[in-house]
Design a protein that fits this description.
Rossmann fold, 5-stranded parallel sheet, 8 helices, globular
Length: 206
Amino acid sequence: MLTNIFAFGASITYGAWDIEKGGWVQRLRSYLEENYKLQKYFVYNLGVSGDTCVMILDRFETDIKFRIEKGETNIVIFSVGINDSAFLQKENKNMTDVDEFKQNLEKLFQMASKYASKILFVGLTSVDETKVSPIPWNTNIFYSNENISKYNDIIKASCQKNGVFFIDLYDKIDKNFLVDGLHPNAKGHEQMLEIIKDFLIKNKII
């Protein structure tokens, strides 16, 4: 039996700054290939740096529909929201308004349910505010744990409402493992993998 795992997200999903093994998604792929010889998994990393929820909505169906065949099992993992939570100083607002974010999540769940038998949401990771308020490469963008926590709670509530698995990562990644205050290094991605992998096993998803 073939199971496809599609991981949608932004730069952390892509694996930014894990120079050893390419991020938690690639680490999950390696784990599955090493430990599940009789069960074939195809893991697709569909993380795009800078993506917000609406950006994933725009590309979701194109990214998934040409990668699946009839009779296969499909699992979708979303890891998005941290960029939505970012505060834009000049505009004096979040990247994505709270109400719009809630609506976009609902659309994501509805869209994913057309293709996947199981949907999961990886929660947001906290940041080192001393390094990302603002971020050095764009001084108009500020990340704060207050906003991240708020958007994380919205995701969690939406998952509960829609019967979707939620993996809570908030405040669980060592801040010493954040390269630039936002993105985990190899050790941070290893921490993420262990939490995500244990959740998948415990809930009999893999």
